[in-house]
Amino acid sequence: MTPLSASVTTVDREIAAGLLEPLTDLVAEAGAAILKINRDVMMVEGKADGSPVTEADLAADRIIAEGLARIAPGIATLSEERTHDAAAPYRGSFFLIDPLDGTTEFVAKRNEYTVNLALVTEGEPLLGIVGAPALGLIWRGLVGHGAERLMVTKDASTRAAQPIRTRRTPGRGSPWIVTVSRSHGDPRTEAFIAAKPGAVRQVLGSAVKFCRVAEGGADIYPRLSPTSEWDVAAGHAVVTAAGGKITDSKGAPLRFGTRSDSFIVPEFIAWGDPSIAG
Q: What is the C-alpha to C-alpha distance for residues 228 and 205, in angstroms, rounded to an integer?
């Protein structure tokens, strides 16, 4: 596609639809770069908040940054690895990126890590792409246009797409399937799940949890403790595009990039069935 004009600062749904393929290519390319990293010998460093960062995080971030500068030079970006460049609060549209979500899973040599890329317009995720390179999958969604799951080869050269939808919450007597974090449990989330009799837990890492809700493999993903906007935005768009809804524990919508002092999401619940949200 022709690169987006540098004068464009607000992206609507029509423009976003034209960006979907090149952005998917970018996520696939970043995922392929991560797969090339030897986890037995890679460097692992600690950030100021105590979380790990690896050469895989940095390689994926570099690919995405260079790609976005080429594809959409007029749109601001916020990456987990470049928060020092942040210019929040953001007006119009901006890209929100976690180049390697689930670094803890990656370091532990598990496969549930992702590349997250979201396009946020006026505080709401409009487009989201979540790539799971080790699983050979990409989930993507454009709010108002639907969502898909793509099978991806290791070199990111071949993809096959399948439409996905969230599912209605099971009726009485059928258990809820709840996706939960392997690495980030908390008492409030545990109490919320305990209030759903017979709930079946799917223990997963990274934004894969959102994607299981989006494709109808789970009913709900609650996290009632703080996380960062770049961990949530891409999955938010995919779930919403697939027919679900994301709220806080009181049923209020989430907003992204609207504060200048923090990129924290205090809590959220991803609902597959929006009729029961809140």
A: 15
